[in-house]
Write a structure and sequence with these properties.
Layout lengths: L3 H9 L10 E5 L3 H12 L3 E5 L8 H4 L8 H13 L3 E3 L10 H7 L2 E4 L5 E2 L12 E3 H9 L10 E4 L3 H18 L4 E4 L11 H9 L3 E3 L2 E9 L2 E14 L5 E14 L2 E4 L3 E2 L6 H7 L2 E2 L2 E2 L12 E3 L2 H4 L3 H25 L1
Parallel strand pairs: 1-2, 1-4, 2-3, 4-17, 6-13, 7-8, 7-13, 8-9
Antiparallel strand pairs: 5-14, 10-11, 11-12, 15-16
Helix pairs in contact: 1-4, 2-11, 6-7
Length: about 350
C-alpha cells in the first residue's frame, strides 16, 4: 500500500499553480460531488461542498454496510481530497440552512450531486403503521452509530442490493442481541430476475436469510396496534402487455410471514424539497430523474447535476459523472474568463 502522504503528493501533482478566482458550490459529499470537487480544485477553481450529514461519503457511507465498504477506506480518500483545499460544510441542509437559489447568486456555478435518500413505500394496508421502516433510513442510522430497535423477527420487502444490505445488517444485529437470525425476504420478481447482485443473494442465503420470490405484499398485518407480519399473494405477472407496471396475483396462494418489524426496500428517490417549489417546476424531469444535457447542464444556466439523481444508484457511474461535470463546469468557467 502507498502511504497516505505519498498519495497526497501524487494528487497534488499537476494541480493549477494559480487560482482562477472562480467559485463552485457542490451539493452532496458523495462519490459524484467529491470527485467533481477534486477535479475542479486541481483546475484552480475554489470548491465548497455542502453536506447534510455529519460526515462525508454520501450513500457509500450511510447506505452501504461497513462489511461491504469499510469506513477507513472512505476516510483515506476524503483526506486526500481535502488536503488539496476542498472545503466541506457538514450538517448544512440546502433548502433549510441556505437556499439553492442563494448559492446560484453567490457562486459562479452550482452542481447537484445528491443521493437517493427517500425510500419508497409499498402503500399497502398497514404500511404507514409503527414498526414499518424504509431500508435507507435504517441503514443510515446504523452507519451513523445510532441505536435502533432490533426486531426478533423481520420481513424485508424487495429484491435489490439495498434489500440484501438491510436484511444482512439486521441479521448481524439479531445475532449480537438474541444469538440467532430470523429474517424473511420477499420480492415481486422471481429469483432469476432479482436486481441484487448474484453474490449478494447467495451470501444472504448462506447467512440464513429466508428468501421467497414472486410474492406480492398485500397488507402489513397488525394485532393490537403492533406489527404481526406481512400478508402476501403469489405473483403471476408484474407487467402488462404494454410493459407497464401492473402486477397480477393468485389470490388463492396466500402466505403470511410473521414479524414484529417490516422493512420496505423497493426503491429510492432524491429529496427534491431542497430545490424548493419554484426551481422544481423550472427544471426538467424524466420519470423522477433530473434531466441534463450531454454536458450535465440542467435547464438553468448556472446549475449542473450528476450522480444518483440523474442516472440512478451506482457508485462507478457517480464517480464518472463527477469527472464529466467538473470538465463541463471548467469549460464554462474558462469561456466566461475569456469573454470577461
Amino acid at each position: 500500500n502507498v502511504p497516505l502522504e505519498r498519495v497526497k503528493q501524487i494528487a497534488a501533482e499537476g494541480r493549477a499553480t494559480e487560482s482562477s478566482g472562480r467559485r463552485v458550490a457542490i451539493i452532496g459529499a458523495g462519490p459524484a460531488g467529491l470527485t467533481a470537487a477534486f477535479d475542479l480544485i486541481r483546475r484552480g477553481h475554489e470548491g465548497t461542498v455542502y453536506e447534510a450529514q455529519s460526515g462525508p461519503g454520501g450513500m457509500t457511507r450511510y447506505g452501504i454496510p461497513y462489511y461491504r465498504l469499510p469506513a477507513d477506506m472512505l476516510e483515506h480518500d476524503i483526506d486526500v481530497i481535502t488536503s488539496l483545499g476542498v472545503t466541506i460544510e457538514y450538517n448544512t441542509r440546502i433548502g433549510h440552512d441556505i437556499t439553492l437559489e442563494q448559492l446560484g447568486q453567490d457562486f459562479d456555478a452550482v452542481a447537484l450531486a445528491v443521493g437517493l435518500w427517500v425510500g419508497r413505500s409499498t402503500r399497502v394496508k398497514g404500511a404507514d403503521g409503527k414498526q414499518v421502516y424504509r431500508a435507507v433510513d435504517l441503514l443510515r442510522d446504523v452507519a451513523a452509530g445510532k441505536q435502533i430497535k432490533v426486531p426478533k423477527q423481520a420481513v424485508v420487502v424487495g429484491g435489490g442490493n439495498v434489500a440484501m444490505d438491510i436484511a444482512r445488517t439486521l441479521g448481524r444485529l439479531q445475532r449480537q442481541k438474541y444469538g440467532e437470525l430470523d429474517i424473511t425476504l420477499t420480492a415481486l420478481e422471481d429469483l432469476e430476475h432479482f436486481l441484487a447482485d448474484k453474490e449478494e443473494i447467495e451470501e444472504a442465503g448462506e447467512e440464513g436469510i429466508r428468501i421467497h420470490d414472486a410474492r406480492g405484499p398485500q397488507e402489513v398485518v397488525q394485532k393490537r396496534g403492533t406489527v404481526a407480519g406481512l400478508r402476501t399473494w403469489k405473483v403471476m405477472s408484474i407487467f402488462d402487455e404494454k410493459g407497464r407496471f401492473a402486477p397480477k396475483y393468485d389470490e388463492t396462494d396466500e402466505q403470511i410471514y410473521p414479524a414484529d418489524m417490516v422493512i420496505e426496500a423497493i426503491g429510492q428517490s432524491a429529496d427534491v424539497s431542497l430545490l424548493g417549489d419554484k426551481l422544481t417546476e423550472e427544471l426538467e424531469w424524466t420519470r423522477g430523474r433530473l434531466t441534463v444535457d450531454d454536458q450535465f447542464r440542467t435547464s438553468l444556466r448556472w446549475l449542473w447535476a450528476a450522480g444518483d439523481m440523474v442516472h440512478g444508484p451506482d457508485v462507478v457511474t457517480a464517480v464518472a459523472d463527477g469527472h464529466k461535470v467538473a470538465e463541463s463546469i471548467h469549460a464554462y468557467l474558462s469561456i466566461r474568463e475569456q469573454t470577461a
